[in-house]
Amino acid sequence: MKPDRHSHTAHRVAIRRAAHQLLDHPPVLDDPVALPILGAETAAALRADPSQFERGPLAPFLRAFMAARARFAEEQLAALRATGVRQCVILGAGLDTFAYRNTDRETPLRVWEVDHPATQAWKRQRLREAGIAIPAELSFVPVNFEHDSLPDELARAGFDLDAGAFFSWLGVTQYLTRPAIFGTLAFIARATRRAGGVVFDYSLSRDLLTDSQRAVYDALAARVNAAGEPWTDGFNPITLMMELCSLGFAAAQDVSGEELNGRYFAGRADGLRVGTIAHLMWAGATPLDLPPQQGRR
Fold first, then answer.
1. Which residues pair with 110 in a beta bridge?
2. ∠ CA(228), CA(22), CA(8), 5° rounding?
3. Does 108 sit behind a cis peptide bond, omega within 30 degrees of 0 on the bond before it?
């Protein structure tokens, strides 16, 4: 990230989330805010031709993964809210829309959106221009993960370290150094020791990939590198789960692309599915209990 420029990849993620609403039926994640938050001009262009930003053989897989990871994270949050967790931290929020379409008012939830200062300023401008109201329970926390103290900044914003929390950290670890990743996860382990946990996505280590997977990985890495936001190396799932437990998480569970396909994409007429080089990870105070689910939410 350049200090004076919002994240290009955050914008691309938002475009793909919006394109998912228009191109894929039924959508895996219903998001009525996905188009308005892009701005009137981009939203109009996307409605006129939803495929114009989504060309190439990898586009459907990327679109599917971005929808599936958001839905998965929000399902884990809903399960935790039912147990009494009332704090949600969205790390690297980009143009995430959860806080603006959260309709569950029976279980109060305080939300903190954490992101690079330039990206956060850009998002707030998008919200103003679209006339999207900022909920009273939402706080913005500008943080550079490589340099700033996440615990200190969240504490200043009213986060209670002892109350339990859910953390969503999507589309971020691929761009951070390992010290930044594990420093953040160590804090999350402390914050969720009583209740809650974190969902984050990550890329498999390149040396674990098949030749065809490596070709896809290299193509995607070249694309984000050209945008000025290069990837760092990925992870081995088994080693990563062991490292998470060593940080203090009581449970760590990996969710592969194959599992996401079985959960959200089985039986679709359009053949939409996620790829296999990116995984989701749950780490928290309790294990996941995930019966198979399919279809639209």
1. 87
2. 10
3. no
Q: Is 84 helix (H, G, I), strand (E, B) or coil?
A: coil
As a whole number of angstroms, the distance between CA 288 and CA 116 comes to 30
Q: What contacts 91, CB < 8 A, 6 or more positions away?
A: 114, 115, 145, 150, 167, 168, 169, 172, 184
CA atoms of 57 and 122, how far apart (whole Å)? 30
Check the CA dihedral 270-46-30-170 and report its sign: positive
Tens of pLDDT, residues 39-64: 999 999 999 999 887 778 899 999 99
Q: How many CB atoms lie within 10 A of CB 41?
A: 8
Token reading at 215? 């070709």
Nearest of 37, 34, 78 to residue 199 by alpha carbon = 78
- Looking at the DSSP bridge assignments, the partners of residue 140 are 113
Six token digits for residue 139: 């706080």
* Global confidence as pTM: 0.94
From CA 97, how far away is CA 276, in angstroms rounded? 26
Within 8 A by CB and 6+ apart from 141, the residues are: 112, 113, 114, 115, 153, 154, 157
Q: What is the pLDDT of residues 161-184, one digit of tens each?
A: 999 999 999 999 999 999 999 999
Q: What residue type is 258 in one-letter code?
A: E
Tokens (6 digits) for 137: 């329970």
Q: CA 96, CA 199: separation in Å to the nearest integer?
A: 15
Q: Which residue stretches of the chain have pLDDT < 50? A: 292-297
